């Protein structure tokens, strides 16, 4: 029987960016159904202003992620994003954009997340701005999602809230601390997977999941 993997993430989570290789490998697997859920970790009460201390902490953490996973964090990101004290550390806009993708082109959510992450960590763009996010969606050919994001309606807001609620319920159920979190389901049974291999060796992670 085909397995379902719930991938719980936040678009502003550097470790989720680091797990991008594993997520791509999972998306390419025909034996595993990937269901992505945003956690809302850095939105709402989890959002915060960008400060010098937080920027220094983030950059230090980013260097650890790059060393472990090989994912790039550029100097442009460091100077254009982390030193911008006017820019909030708030994943709510990007989360809403990804929900718009999930509603209009569900199979493309992983691609959209990757593009948003690269826009921030490589290109140094401000992905807390709806205009930036809409441009990214247009560039991916996700016109319906871009239109939905430009004029969010009640159905988009409700779907976004429901996805976050489902993610948080799963995190609470398994006592998972933070994201990325991976929960595999088969025959009605769910199991929390360690994310260590997802960060250091994506193919090993996929193999572990296949054997779970």
Automatic annotation (TrEMBL):
Pfam families: DSBA
InterPro entries (UniProt xref): DSBA-like_thioredoxin_dom, Thioredoxin-like_sf
Domain (DSBA-like thioredoxin) ranges: 9-193
Protein name: DsbA family protein
């Amino acid at each position: 029987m085909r397995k379902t993997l719930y991938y719980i993430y936040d678009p502003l989570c550097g470790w989720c960016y680091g797990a991008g290789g594993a997520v791509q490998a999972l998306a390419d697997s025909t034996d595993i159904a990937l269901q992505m859920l945003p956690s809302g970790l850095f939105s709402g009460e989890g959002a915060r202003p960008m400060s010098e201390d937080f920027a220094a902490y983030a950059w230090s953490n980013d260097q650890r992620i790059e060393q472990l996973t090989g994912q790039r964090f550029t100097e442009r990101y460091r100077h254009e994003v982390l030193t911008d004290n006017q820019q909030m550390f708030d994943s709510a806009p990007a989360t809403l954009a990804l929900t718009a993708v999930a509603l209009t082109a569900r199979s493309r959510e992983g691609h959209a997340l990757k593009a948003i992450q690269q826009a921030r960590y490589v290109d140094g763009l401000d992905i807390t701005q709806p205009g930036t996010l809409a441009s990214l969606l247009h560039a991916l050919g996700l016109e319906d999602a871009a239109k939905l994001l430009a004029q969010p309606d009640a159905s988009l807001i409700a779907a976004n809230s429901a996805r976050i609620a489902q993610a948080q319920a799963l995190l609470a159920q398994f006592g998972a601390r933070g994201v990325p979190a991976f929960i595999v389901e088969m025959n009605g049974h769910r199991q929390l997977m360690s994310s260590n291999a997802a960060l250091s060796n994506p193919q090993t992670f996929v193999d572990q999941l296949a054997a779970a």
